[in-house]
């Protein structure tokens, strides 16, 4: 019995050694290439095969559970010393075959972005008042996106920097009663909007009933206000 157990241990050790020699740390799984961030080793039943992520994606060494797809956007991957990547395969407007990129040109280049799939770009638009941040692959405040500070708005803050402890001042949008701007440190505008049925009250710095703001009393058609009032009554009956 002891000899049989010893033989099994030797066989298992030989299998593990054979897997390791082929680049497999386990019989099944994905393992990072030591130098290239978009390359990886795929192991199936102890057989290692070098694979390459699609152009624009990187191997995510946190997604090693087999057979889960192991490639992610570069912003989601920490490459560390794996600095090499495959040459870019640009196509049309896409700098790489896959990825999210800020639009290269046009008046909306800060607020619009391209979703490149297989080298074909579809244009998407950030919500109003936001700019696309390539570093985080999400829509963000314009003052947090290099090159887009103030590019999204017609509005400019007064420009006199104030301490954050004093609170960030708020200003009405000159063209839309629902919108207002929070000026971070009084120099970085961030656009907000009141809920439907309300307008911004510059005297109070809050969203308010239209009739409380003289210049915005007629902002909503009467039919809209009547519909909102009906919904409020309906909600109250449900409470």
TrEMBL record:
SUPFAM superfamilies: Invertebrate chitin-binding proteins
Domain of life of the native organism: Eukaryota
Keywords: Chitin-binding, Disulfide bond, Glycoprotein, Repeat, Signal
Keyword field contains Nucleotidyltransferase: no
The Chitin-binding type-2 domain, residue ranges: 21-81, 91-150, 154-218
Magnesium is among the record's keywords: no
InterPro entries documented for this protein: Chitin-bd_dom, Chitin-bd_dom_sf, Chitin_bind-dev_reg
Signal peptide: 1-21
A matching Pfam family: CBM_14
UniProt name for this protein: Chitin-binding type-2 domain-containing protein
Organism field: Orchesella dallaii
């Amino acid at each position: 019995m002891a000899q049989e157990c010893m033989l099994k241990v030797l066989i298992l050790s030989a299998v593990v050694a054979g897997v390791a020699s082929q680049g497999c740390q386990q019989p099944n799984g994905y393992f990072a290439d030591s130098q290239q961030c978009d390359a990886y080793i795929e192991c199936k039943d102890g057989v290692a095969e070098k694979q390459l992520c699609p152009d624009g994606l990187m191997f995510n060494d946190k997604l090693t559970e087999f057979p889960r797809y192991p490639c992610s956007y570069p912003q989601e991957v920490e490459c560390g010393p794996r600095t090499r990547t495959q040459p870019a395969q640009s196509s049309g407007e896409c700098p790489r075959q896959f990825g999210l990129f800020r639009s290269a040109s046009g008046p909306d280049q800060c607020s619009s972005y391209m979703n490149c799939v297989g080298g074909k770009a579809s244009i998407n638009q950030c919500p109003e008042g936001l700019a696309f941040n390539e570093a985080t692959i999400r829509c963000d405040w314009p003052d947090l996106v290099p090159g887009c500070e103030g590019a999204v708005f017609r509005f400019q803050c007064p420009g006199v920097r104030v301490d954050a402890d004093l609170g960030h001042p708020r200003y009405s949008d000159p063209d839309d009663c629902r919108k207002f701007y929070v000026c971070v440190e009084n120099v970085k505008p961030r656009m907000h909007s009141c809920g439907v049925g309300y307008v911004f009250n510059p005297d109070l710095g809050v969203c308010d009933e239209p009739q409380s703001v003289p210049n915005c009393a007629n902002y909503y058609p009467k039919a809209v206000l009547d519909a909102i009032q009906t919904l409020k009554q309906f909600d109250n009956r449900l409470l």
